[in-house]
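Many introductory courses stop at the sequence. We go one step further.
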Amino acid sequence: MSDPHLLRAVAQALADPHAFLAVIVEAEDRRAAVHALQERYGWDEHQSEMVMDMSFKRATRADRSSIMQELRLAGGAEA
């Protein structure tokens, strides 16, 4: 993944994974979760869908660090 647009969404989600997960588990279904993520984070549908498909393994400290490094290298601002 090297698209700064998508990396920013991942970085935001992983900056506070508990809040991110709370938005998802409170949603009635996937469509509602995508909409709730758009409302909460200001993401577009593509970002919301991509983050919804993200694996929990991406939440480890090492993976979060790797994502932030990739975002910096891609020229995107940190979340």
